[in-house]
Design brief:
By secondary structure, this protein is of the alpha+beta class. The protein contains eight helices and 17 strands. The termini are far apart.
Amino acid sequence: MTRPSGTGMPFAIIAECVTLKGGNSIIISGRVSFLRSSVSVDKPFKITNKLRSRGYDPVTSSDKAFEKFIRSKINKRFPEHKIIGEELGVKKTKSDFSWIIDPIDGTRSYVIGNPTWSNLISLNYKGYPVMGLANFPKLNKYYLNYNSKIAYVFEKGKKTKLKVNKKTPFKKAIVAGAFHGWLSMKKQQKIPKILRLMQFPCFDALSYAHLAEGRLDVVLQCANKIWDIHPIMPIVKAAGAIITTWNNRDAVYAGNILVSGNHSNHKKMLKLLKPALK
């Protein structure tokens, strides 16, 4: 299969991290380096269904090529760090630092030429995400947190600080959600109010990014793996969002994820989602 024609975009990865230890705290900051990937986003690619007859979860040859590229850059700069990738598994080391990689988040979009797919990378310290990068090659922009309180979107040579919309009342909340076939019809029938609220499309990591920009007020998705959500967590948190699982656990555990712009809306959404957990 061949993607629609277009120019390949520079690929962004976190190039450096600086750790400053003080007492029991650790501060991690970083910067982004733009690299021209040898992986073309426009050349033909092969598609495989990882679930086979049990459903549809596509992976392409581009997924694997992107992950190899990202791993090579991390290994060169941080050979002692752990790496966990969606397609190529785990590189184990004794380091407290680990990199979580989703080479193409939104493979379904990638396959049909929808430009909303992204490359996701997080830097974790002792298992917890401290830096996140969401890079959208076809949209010419990327999202990155500098620390736990500051995150930016970089687009057209400009950077804009990310800030959620904390003032939207629940009745006016703009909600985006998707189940991607992971929530049974029986469970969906238990949350009719949630279904009525989900009136805006959900595009994987891009919807989380839009919430961090204040465009959306609530995003909910099902069956996130750590590589889907760890890179997103530091970004949305730095923008002021609340992020948990549907049963109000730390989002670091992944699974069904809820992100909201304010605590009031988050609490109300958790209550409405509760019947789907039974």
